[in-house]
Amino acid sequence: MDDCIFCKLVKREIPAKIAYEDDQVIAFHDIDPKAPIHLLVIPKRHITTLNDLEEGDAALVGRLQVTAAKLAKELGFAEAGYRVVMNCNEDAGQTVWHIHMHLLAGRSLTWPPG
Ligand code: 5GP
Ligand code: ZN
Fold first, then answer.
1. Residues with CB under 5 A from ligand 2 (ion)
2. pLDDT the model gives residue 114
3. pLDDT in tens, 38-84
4. How remote is the CA of residue 32 from the centroid of ligand 1, in Å?
5. Using H for helix, E for strand and C for coil, what is the string for the chain?
6. Taking CB atoms and a 6 Å cutoff, what residues make up the pocket around ligand 1?
């Protein structure tokens, strides 16, 4: 997707502070963090919303979560705790149209979310 900001980030056309990368997934620090630690874990392949996932994407989505858990351990906040969130469409507040998992940590997070 030529006009997708996260596809551009994957292609290194815009800069990002990258925390992890493999052949399918990339994780980087959110440009406008909502917690002391706020990473985004995304598939390298463009998928617009969670509604566009297909049966064959199950392993890829699992990989996002496994990556988030691995980063939580590596960055040292796994035991204290963290939250993962994926927003889908307007009511959830999705603003970037390439699926992404938010990984939030470093403070006590309130529940329920607003
Ligand atoms: P959403 O609201 O779609 O669930 O989350 C999109 C997230 O992407 C927001 O937290 C926003 O701060 C982040 N974001 C938007 N543009 C950029 C960017 O160019 N670079 C980085 N690192 N994060 C971005
Ligand atoms: Zn994209």
1. 1, 4, 6-7, 46, 98
2. 83
3. 999 999 999 999 999 999 999 999 999 999 999 999 999 999 999 99
4. 7
5. CCCCHHHHHHCCCCCCCEEEECCCEEEEECCCCCCCEEEEEEECCCCCCHHHCCHHHHHHHHHHHHHHHHHHHHHCCCCCCEEEECCCHHHHCCCCCCCCEEEEECCCCCCCCC
6. 5, 14, 16, 28, 30-32, 40, 87, 93-96
